[in-house]
User: Fold this.
Amino acid sequence: MQFSAKYNHPLFLLAMSLLLLASCKNKEYALPTAPDNLQNDAIKRTLGPNIVGQTIEFAYAMAIKPSKGKLATCDAEASIAGAAGTFMDNKSYFTKSNGADSGVVVATPSVNSGNKTSITYNKDTSAATLRYYYVIPEAARGQSVSFTFTATSSNGEKISMKMGPYTISKMDMVRNLAVSNNNMAYISIADTAVYNAANAAANAAKIDLVYLYRNLTTSTFGHALVSPAADTSYLPGITLPTGVNRSTKTQKVFNMQDYNLARLQYGGIFVDDIDFQKIDLSNQPNYAINLKAEAGVWVETADKKYRAYIYINSVNANGSAVISMKRYAL
Amino acid sequence: MKKNIFISLSVLLAAITWISCKKDRPVDEDGLLITTRRECYVSNFELLGTDYVTVRVGSAVIDTTAQTVKVTVAFGTDLKNVYPQFTLAQDCKLNPKITGRTDMSDLANPRKWTVISGNRQIQKEYTVQVTVQPR
Assistant:
């Protein structure tokens, strides 16, 4: 049978309408069916660079149908053993109606053995999410760390999940160093410490910056980090301890509230190893004056052994400030 | 009949293509439109430090007759690494272009920039004189 051309168009439209009608049909919702075997999943909860001494937190979830069995054990194995303080929380958390986390003890306290952190369930539990806190050890600096989470159930099933590898930063971090005018004013990047004049003289070769505050009427000097070797006009009224004479490159930064250092509610900026590797401070001055709270200063030591980012947590008009620093050994 | 329609459409298409490709709006070597505007001056000037915060103390004084910009910067400003920002009359452009940090530390030999009008026929050289605030 052959249709004449004048019927082709309406037939095509009819076919398209039927197709549209069929495609718009709603599928009936069906409750998902839980798999029969032991299940697991994991997320890394901490963001930003992994810094030695800090914690990486994971949430590891595991579940089995109650008709099949109960959860028996759970362990986390790191490729490099965690530092003291590494543990797995023996509480399973749920979120209350007010949004707060609430923990229910489901297991014995975790036990560390070598690279492995283990817990044994002591409550009848079919599903739990446990948190694992890995304190980054010195041995992991500059290396990669991987994790294997394993759960077992009373019916003999075993399931594992690998996470990582995660690169551990080479840099160090030190927070909340109090500096004050004419007292705790001498900053050593090598030691990530602040000294007074007497101790600065004893560590003269390691003093990179002098903190000072001047409230001048003719200019906005304010809070400053100045190299001992800077022009004396940037060190008004300062008599340097004997031997303190290094020239440190500095570059002022504003609006870079590093999340690790600032720990403010807003965040998302993380200074990491790559920033220290890439920054070029060769053409920068050896002083930074008129520093405000939440400002920062990139620093390179005279011997080019270290680069650092110094963040100004707070300043006080009486001539003191709180600083934090990330430091990278070149 | 069909043949005639086809030929007419082809001619029309060719004509449209030719018109659309015609270059009636000249652009300069930077791809910027050359207009008929003859205005040629600096209307505002800003100077930022490496932290992108202004280093000026007070407003910059712009003399469009003497073709100078006088600006006082805070004591301690690192003039080797500053970002000058010019606001120009409409359609003007600046030469040389400012592409990043600029060294303005040689106070004895102030930096000069040339403003070029929208019609690209008028050029005016501005001298930026920097004074450092005393301590």
